[in-house]
Amino acid sequence: MSSKKKVNESPDAVLVGAGIMSATLGVLLKELRPDMTLVILEGLSEVAQESSSAWNNAGTGHAALCELNYTPEKKDGSIDVSKAIQINESFELSKQLWASLVQRGTLGRAGGFLTRVPHLSFVHGRKNVEYLRKRHEALKDHPFFREMEFTEDPATMAEWMPLIMQDRDPKEPVAATRVESGTDVDFGALTKAMIEHLKKLPGVTVHTGHQVANVYRSGDDWTVEAEPDFAPRYSLRTKFVFLGAGGGALPLLQMSGIPEGKGFGGFPVSGQWLRCDNPELVDRHFAKVYGKASVGAPPMSVPHLDTRIINGKRSLLFGPYAGFTTKYLKSGSLLDLPMSFRPDNFIPMVAAGLANFDLTKYLIGQVIQSPEERLEALKEFVPDAKMEDWHLAYAGQRVQIIKKDKKKGGILQFGTEVVSAEDGSIAALLGASPGASTAVGIMLQLIGKCFPEEMKSQEWTDKLKALIPAYGESMAGNPELYRQTRAWTAEVLGLKV
């Protein structure tokens, strides 16, 4: 199904994929250049149905408040907090854009997509308790993390997370940190609100059910060929293309043929959750509680028990249980991975595959887990969990980046990366977490690469400062700016503790 607007055959920009990334980029570009014409192409029948869909992700407003993989322990025993600071600041930029749009009435009520839910880290075992204590010491004096509380007292933890502490062995060393001002984000609802806003603006066309079949150079422009459901293929000629189709961005980047895309590959990882809708249990847990990944597990498999608030209803999710598939999208094809091999990425793909063979075995092991084995993993968090209260649900598909490496041939990289042509006429977003939470920072980086001269102009700087008050400044280096902007976003978005 497509929108009723007539196809604009020569738009200024074509955005592929109707998830949180394209929605964010579209909003920013129309704010900066109101006369810009945009076409957004989505292959599925609705927007925000892949990784942005509420049930396809954990909904954690990733601010590094509880995610232990963002604060690794170094060889000398110290804690590296640099990534945590970077991610926290990036999430604050996202909140500032959302607050501006809420103030303007663009997104409606913030409660429709954002809720305050405390963020906790929980560990057990002496070694992990010591790690969490050091992590808290390394973070607690930074302006971003001064709210963080640390405890080894089981009674305090029982108040913070009664479901997790009930019937736990009193002799087991445990510790937790808590930040009350954490968030749960319904990225599906947020994306849909942003897309609806864009559809009302002049010069914006949104088409669903339109698969992109090809992307190629046409002189100084780009041609994007789209195949609508039940209609003939058509072409769009444009000056700028954004490939924001989640896992589907890699094949499109390869089609484009730009030198900057050479050597990239993708390693697909699926996920599963145990979901609980039992009101009696749901009412006893109001937090996002993250633990430590088991030895050999990938960073995206950090176990966590989450309060989710979707369409006003609370549920619990536990997981994720990782899985292996050759699909690049949840709605994709089993041929996605084998078809992605190219002469330029063959060595990086094979080298990364061999170097991460244990990861592949781990993922396959996760796929063949029995319900009883999943329950045992859940019981590490909820000791008295019963299988009848939980059911298996499938998460979205993630594609981790594989790229060239001079020493190793190829490496598997976790995180996100913007790949753009030298002239800035096309860009793709590859990778996964913490993606959605840091969408604003990532899209500002992309705009800076693709519209460098305009981004230097005072006009664009003023517009961005009006939308994102901390734009162009370091909140980490300016605690007063952080305090002021955070108080403002908390007020507007209903996050005051």
How many structural domains does the protein architecture include? 1
Shape: globular
Structural class of the helix and strand makeup?
A: alpha+beta
Distance between the termini: 43 Å
InterPro entries: FAD/NAD-bd_sf (IPR036188), MQO (IPR006231)
Cofactor: FAD
EC number: 1.1.5.4
GO biological process, one term: tricarboxylic acid cycle
Polypeptide structure, described:
- Helices cover 32% and strands 25% of the residues.
- The protein is of the alpha+beta class.
- It has one domain: FAD/NAD(P)-binding domain (3-Layer(bba) Sandwich).
- The strands form four sheets. Strands 4, 5, 6, 13, 14, 15, 16, 17, 18 and 19 form a ten-stranded mixed β-sheet that branches.
- α2 (82-103) crosses α13 and α2 (82-103) crosses α16.
- The chain is globular, with a radius of gyration of 22 Å.
- It starts with 12 loop residues before the first strand and ends with a helix.
- Its EC number is 1.1.5.4.
- Keywords: FAD, Flavoprotein, Oxidoreductase, Tricarboxylic acid cycle.
- It comes from Luteolibacter ambystomatis.
